[in-house]
Amino acid sequence: MSQPASKPLDSPPTDRPQAAAGNIDPAEVERFQALAKAWWDPTGKFRPLHQIGPARLTFVRDELARHFGREAGGLRPLKDLTVLDVGCGGGLMSEPLCRLGARVTGIDPGEKNIAIARGHAEPQGLAIDYRAATVEERVAAGDQYDAVVCLEVVEHVPDVALFVKACADLVRPGGMLILSTINRTVKSYALAIVGAEYILQWLPRGTHQWERFVTPDELARHVTAAGLSPPRFMGFVYSPFRDAWSLAPDTDVNYLASAAKP
Length: 262
Hints:
Elements: H1 26-33, H2 47-68, E1 82-86, H3 94-99, E2 103-108, H4 111-121, E3 129-132, H5 135-140, E4 145-151, H6 160-169, E5 171-182, H7 186-199, H8 216-225, E6 232-239, E7 244-248, E8 254-260
Parallel strand pairs: 1-2, 1-4, 2-3, 4-5
Antiparallel strand pairs: 5-8, 6-7, 6-8
């Protein structure tokens, strides 16, 4: 999984919003809370997350299985691994991780999101520990997990370096951090913002701010500065002919990363 050459534009402006208390952007939290009832509608506002779900889950499952010496093809390859899902929203990743055997904690700063996640998981008998909380609060509480998973969140926080450090602090020694985000390139602006938000209207306008997108090089610096190994990268791409997403070496737009804690 070597990192393919990407084509990042210039670094984002230096007048980016400063980190609010807990490194939270209140406007971002409210934007997703306003859509909370739509989390589990596969044809609604979160349709893109439902579509990329299988590809993301494959990467997370395979990386954790590889790292912890498990058989990825088994029914419950993550059995008894403690996993923290950061920015869990309505639980779109927490639930499949639980079904793969992990003991999942899902955190999100939006209480409405957590309420939706609990309400969806409990009738199915999924024992997921959902909490309205931030990563900084869990660090202060002394929590640590076998794995921390943070998907499509990095591009929504004011201070990426501080956020990645907090996530890394929640990984126990010998554990793993898995992230996914969007690269800051001309291609990502055209596809993730102009295409997805304005032309295809897959996402509400304003969902993403291009200047907050993070290049693989930048993310790698943040990850290693937080004391983790150099990350392994993998992209995932959309096929309009199949109307499906799949893992691919192309990291120009959407990509995932995994890094181990010594």
